[in-house]
Design brief:
The structure is a single chain. The protein is of the alpha+beta class. The protein folds into two domains: 87 residues, ATP Synthase, domain 1; 44 residues. It contains two helices and seven strands. Helix 1 packs antiparallel against helix 2.
Length: 142
C-alpha cells in the first residue's frame, strides 16, 4: 500500500504512549463489537471495550496490544485510542486473569436484585475472558 493510504495511529494510556505511527489497518474492540479501520473510514467516536488492538503494516508493522476501556476516535486519516490500560499479550499474567474471572463469577452470584451489580460483574468477567484469550493467542472471544 502507498504511504498515502496509511492511517496515523496513536495508542495512549494515562501513563504511556504505546504507538504513534502509521498502519495500513487497525482492528480494535468497541463496547458493541470489533471494528476494522482502514484509510478513509467514516468518522466515528466509540467507547472502547476490552480486547485486542491489532495493527497491520505501515511504519509500526504488525503488532498486538490488549486494551481495556476508554474511547476511540476514528477520522478518515487517523485513529486515536485512549485506553485505561494497554499491555502486550505476552505480558499478561494469566493466573491473575483467572483469579479475576473467578471474582467476576462470585460478584455475579452475589448481585441479588441489583442490575448495576450484574453489569459490573459482566464487565469483570468479559475483561478477564478477553485477557486470557489474548494471552493464550486465541484472539477475541466475541
Amino acid at each position: 500500500m502507498a504511504e498515502t493510504n496509511s492511517i496515523r495511529v496513536r495508542l495512549v494510556t494515562p501513563e504511556h504512549v504505546f504507538i504513534d505511527g502509521t498502519a495500513d489497518s487497525v482492528s480494535l474492540p468497541s463496547r458493541s463489537g470489533y471494528l476494522e479501520v482502514l484509510y478513509a473510514h467514516a468518522p466515528l467516536l466509540a467507547e472502547l471495550g476490552a480486547g485486542e488492538v491489532t495493527l497491520h503494516g505501515g511504519n509500526v508493522g504488525d503488532q498486538q496490544f490488549f486494551v481495556a476501556w476508554g474511547f476511540v476516535e476514528v477520522l478518515p486519516d487517523r485513529v486515536t485510542i485512549l485506553a485505561e490500560s494497554a499491555v502486550r499479550p505476552n505480558q499478561i499474567d494469566v493466573e491473575e486473569a483467572r483469579q479475576e474471572l473467578e471474582q467476576g463469577h462470585k460478584m455475579w452470584n452475589e448481585a441479588g436484585d441489583e442490575s448495576r451489580r450484574y453489569a459490573e460483574a459482566n464487565q469483570v468477567i468479559h475483561e478477564a475472558e478477553e485477557r486470557i484469550a489474548a494471552a493464550e493467542g486465541a484472539g477475541p472471544t466475541a
